[in-house]
Amino acid sequence: MEILITQEQIQSRIAELARSIEADYEGRPLSLIGVMTGSLMLLADLARSIQLPSRVGVIQAGSYRGATTVGGALYINDTFLPDVAGRDVIILDDILDTGHTLSALKDLIAQRGPNSVRTAVLLRKIGRQIVPIEPDYTGFEIPNRFVIGYGLDFNDDYRHLPHIGVFAEDPE
Ligand code: IMP
Ligand code: MG
Fold it and tell me: Per the domain annotation, does 27 fall within a domain?
């Protein structure tokens, strides 16, 4: 399987993102909210790299689709979302594709009374976005291919890989 982004590249980019987040928030406490399940690796690594007092929480979102990334209906489960009222929130997701997921989650969290809401994605696919949302922090821009690893799955497999691999050329 072709490796698109190595473990070392991911880790050094996460350190860079952590440094810019530290500079932007200047000591203010953060709430890092990871989108389950794809962002778990990013959440764990970024939370440990950011030298700010942080809370960590999760929200679940997904849409039913396979390797062709044909979007189905978006579902959101906020059962485990902690209280974000008055907090500076950064929503973390594995990948920005059409933008539907991140924009829906940003709207939902904005309704819970946070002090601010920003977004961070490890990957952003070029030429796929439908919903206009600009992530505040982006790890890597990638071509339109179906990728797996470091949290990203195909049918719930491959999330454990420490690198990003190309699973399939995206036919769309
Ligand atoms: P969006 O709502 O279209 O932006 O989709 C974002 C979600 O689609 C991500 O959180 C992933 O779960 C999933 N996704 C999009 N592209 C890929 C991919 O190449 N590999 C694995 N999951 C993907
Ligand atoms: Mg996901």
Answer: yes
Residue 86 lies in a domain: yes
Q: From 69, 74, 97, give the residue whose CB has the most ligand 1 atoms within 8 Å, as the site to mutate.
A: 97
Q: Would the CB of 34 count as within 6 Å of ligand 1?
A: no
Pairing verdict, β 164-169 and 3-5: antiparallel
Q: Which atom of ligand 1 is nearest to the CA of 38?
A: 12
Count of domains observed in the chain: 1
pLDDT of residue 67 exceeding 70, the answer is no
A 10 A CB-CB count for 67 gives 14
Before 37, cis peptide (omega within 30)? yes
pLDDT tens digits, one per residue of 15-63: 999 999 999 999 999 999 999 999 999 999 999 999 999 999 999 999 8
Residue 70 has pLDDT above 60, yes or no: no
Please indicate, yes or no, if residue 89 is contained in any of the structural domains: yes
Identity (one letter) of the amino acid at 37?
Answer: T
Domain extent at residue 46: 2-65+78-166
Asked whether residue 172 is assigned to any structural domain, the reply reads no
Kindly give the distance from the C-alpha atom of residue 63 to the centroid of ligand 2, in angstroms, as a whole number: 8
Digit-coded pLDDT (tens) for 115-124: 999 999 999 9
CATH of the domain at 49: 3.40.50.2020
Instruction: Report the atom number in ligand 1 closest to the C-alpha of 95.
Output: 9
